[in-house]
Amino acid sequence: MGTHHHGRTARLELDDQSLREWDALVLASGPEGIVLDRSAFYPGGGGQPPDEGVLLWQGVQTRIAGVRKGGDLELIPVEGDPIPPAGTAVTGAVEDARRTALMRTHSGLHLLCGVVFRDYGCLVTGGNMEPLAARMDFDLREVPPGFKQAVEDACNAEVEADRRIDVKELPRKEAFEIPDIIRTATNLVPPEVEDVRIVDIVGLDTQADGGTHVASTKQIGRIQVAKVENKGRGFRRLRIKVSD
Questions:
Q1: pLDDT bucket at 46, cuts 50 / 70 / 90
Q2: Cβ distance 213 to 75 under 8 Å?
Q3: Phi and psi for 149 in degrees, rounded to 5?
Q4: Exposure string (b/e) for 208-242, b if CB count within 10 Å is 16 or more?
Q5: 3 to each of 12, 34, 43, 169, 214, how far by Cα in Å?
Q6: 109 vs 53: CA distance, rounded Å
Q7: Within 10 Å of residue 33's Cβ, how many Cβ atoms?
Q8: Rg of the chain over CA atoms, in angstroms?
Q9: Measured over all CA atoms, what is the biggest interatomic distance in the chain, rounded to whole angstroms?
Q10: pLDDT confidence of residue 190
Q11: For residue 220, which phi and psi values (nearest 5 degrees)?
Q12: Nearest to 165 by CA among 212, 95, 224
């Protein structure tokens, strides 16, 4: 895969989801944000929150509290931390425990989505996540008896099946020829996007998605369906927890 860019920043995390540390050059900086030439900080999107971490330079540490998508990717420093000036060589490091938990959770949501679509034919109307906990909303008019336990059991059977999770890019036209590629009730892929990033839980679920994922369903861990809530008009919210 070629390197992805946002503004002047090469986005390393989309090509290597296991990358946690790298060298970079500061292109611009201020208390509002720091722009690097290359970064593996996921900027957030698709329900997945942005990464946190640090920049190390000349014996100094700058903590990164989040990422803002403007014309460039701007890393948001913790207030009061020293700011590396433009031209500084830095080492960037993503906080591993948080990112790995978010990758497991994001893959868990795709697995949930695949199971509910396969077994109940329902589309997703929304979702959100934090590390190891998430919610997903489905267009489900009637909740069948035993639904909560049946979904949980089916999800964990797919975890045990250790299905590969592949990430690839396809030209827009080719991507949209895949049946059910958009599992949301509305198509969220902007019209100007020429290459669509596809996340494929092999044999279960294929979706357009820009987030970061683990390499197989086994790496997600155990999925618990903690709650099924009625959100009115036939919308049901499933809350899940992910554990080792």
A1: confident
A2: no
A3: -70, -40
A4: bbbbbbbebbeebbebebeeeeeeeeebbbbebbb
A5: 7, 20, 16, 12, 20
A6: 24
A7: 18
A8: 19
A9: 62
A10: 76
A11: -65, -45
A12: 212
Judge contact between 92 and 22, C-beta under 8 A.
yes
Taking the C-alpha atoms of residue 48 and residue 68, their distance in angstroms, rounded to an integer, is 13
pTM: 0.93
**CB 123 within 8 Å of CB 140:** no
Q: Are 204 and 114 in contact (CB under 8 A)?
A: yes
Which residue type sits at 115? V
Residues 139, 238 contacting (CB under 8 angstroms): no
Read off the tokens for 236: 């049901």
| Structure-block tokens of residue 163 | 């299905």
In the predicted structure, residue 185 carries a pLDDT above the cut 90: no
Could you read off the pLDDT of 124-178 as tens digits, one per residue?
988 999 999 999 999 999 899 999 999 999 999 999 999 999 999 888 888 888 8
Dig out the tokens for 117 from the structure.
């679509």
Sorting pLDDT into bands at 50, 70 and 90, what band is 188? low
